[in-house]
Write a structure and sequence with these properties.
Distance between the termini: 78 Å
Shape: globular
Order of helices and strands: HHEEEEHHEEH
Number of helices: 5
Radius of gyration: 28 Å
Number of strands: 6
Largest sheet: 6 strands, antiparallel
Oligomer: single chain
Length: about 210
Amino acid sequence: MRALFKKLHRIFVNLAFFPSTLGHTSPRPAASEVLTCHLRQRRLPPWTSFCVRYSAVQNDQFGLSNFNWSVQGSNYHILRTGCFPFIKYHCTKAPPQSLHLEDSFFTLLKVINLGVPCLAYGIGCWMVVGAAETVRTSLGPVTVYFAYKEDEGGQVPDCPLARDTVKTSTAEQAEDGRFKNYHNSCDGGRRLQQKRVPSRLGLHATGP
């Protein structure tokens, strides 16, 4: 059944890219090689997310939605979906575990929905692309795309919203610290006052 869907999918992609696919005879790297090379080029980051064009690769991971992927001793949980005209990858570094159930569930959803949400997702990805990077493979360079430019070797995107969130969080922590210092100083003053008041009355101060 998977082989049949793969054949139908290949026909659809060829028709969608016609006539550019007619004269496209140069070999293309496998999508799995682009995935591996990207993770190596990024120095095995804890997280990354990118798109690659269908027309730039051989779709050798067709039918895989959630799976483990090992690169230089590091394991990644890969969330993959075809979202025409792209293939989308979410990569999270994590220990190996069985993802067969999740993979089957996501694949079933795609089949039930006839791939329509995936097409909508692809249009959305195309609209929000904000950065690109060249990945070097054995068959030449391939361009991958990002919603935001990611820090090399890291997981934090260069996103204004993310920076504002960090600044807000830092400001809130500073404000919380000032409040605690003020509260402690006031509390200390009250305790000192409670000790002094009984002494003025000629009583023994025992404190709270």
